[in-house]
Structure formats: C-alpha cells, structure tokens
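Technical note accompanying the year-one report. For the benefit of new consortium partners, we illustrate the data format agreed upon in the data management plan: each record pairs a sequence with a structure-token string. No post-processing was applied to the example shown here.
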Amino acid sequence: MDKKEFYVEKSLKMFLKHGIKSVTIGEIATRLNISTKTIYKLFIDKTGLVRECLILDNHIIHQTYEQILQKENALAALMQFYNELANRIASVNPNYFADLQRYFPEIWTEIATYSTTQLDILLKRGVESGIFFKNIDTLICAKSIGLLINAVLQDDYFSSQLKDRRKLTANVLYPYIRGICTSQGLEEIKNNFAKGEIVY
C-alpha cells in the first residue's frame, strides 16, 4: 500500500465515523500527520479525496457481495447480506449516508443499483430452490428491500429508535423477508436463528 492509498483508507474511516460534510481537510491532515498542502497536491480538493474514499468503500461493498453470492444456499446468502447490512448501518454514522445521498447522488445511485441487482440474483435463486414463493416478482421485491433500507437510513423517520440501529434494521427488514418465504424458507430461518446466525 502506497501513501496515497493509506491516506484514503484512513480518511474513509473518519468519514464513516463522523460523516463527510463535518470532517475538514485540516482535521484529516492532523489525523494523518501531514500538511494540508500534501492533501491538496494528491487529491486537488476535499471533493477529490472524498471521491477516492467512496471508490474504496464501493470496492469493499462489491467484495462483500461477491463473497455472499458464493454461498450455495440462497437464504443463507440473503441472511448474510441482511446481517452485513445491519452491522454496517449500526456502525456507520448516519450523516455519512445522508451526505452521500445529498452531495454524491451519482455514487449513491450506483451503489443502490448494484445492490438491487445482487438482491434480485439471490431472490431468483431462492425461488428456484423453493425457499421463496414462486409467484413473486424478484426485481420488485429487491427494489422494495432497497426502499426499506432507505427508510432505515432516514434520521427523521425513526428518530426515537436510532439508538439501536441494528434492532431498527431487524424490525424493518426481517418481517418482509419472512413474508416472501415458503414453509421451507421459514424452517431454514428458524434453524438459522437457533444457530445464532441472524442478527435480531
């Protein structure tokens, strides 16, 4: 890892923890123990640095999805996606998501589109294996899950429940996932719960 990659990685951690807008170039420079001049030389401005950080974050998300899709069992893969999502929402400052949507909508849309595509693939596999109902429209279901995720990310929508974002995610997404499951799928969910493999 060269210095530029190191700076991007550390900056991304700051943005995830505090949000994008609230973190200044000066704070980043202090944290990295470098001059602001060095940052401007490498990234031109804060927007350039943020974009590099978002590319890295997007890459990490893609790697995670690729690992999930390797699971043979569609429901197990969907539950891992659900767990990863719940953990991410719980660990990342909600301002990060809000800033991403407001100031970098094209990147937010790219992430959302990619996520919907991967969910559609998982749901189709689940239908084929008898875990989800055969008559569901998998693309509509994938987009619906995306809308539910957006609802969780809205600070003003669930303001009184934001103290436990993992529980909030569970209560919003889990009932929907159960609702598209066949009896076989529900039994597998029950087994996953017994093994402690589902965050709820």
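Partners are asked to follow this layout when depositing records. The CA atoms of residues 189 and 195 lie 10 Å apart.
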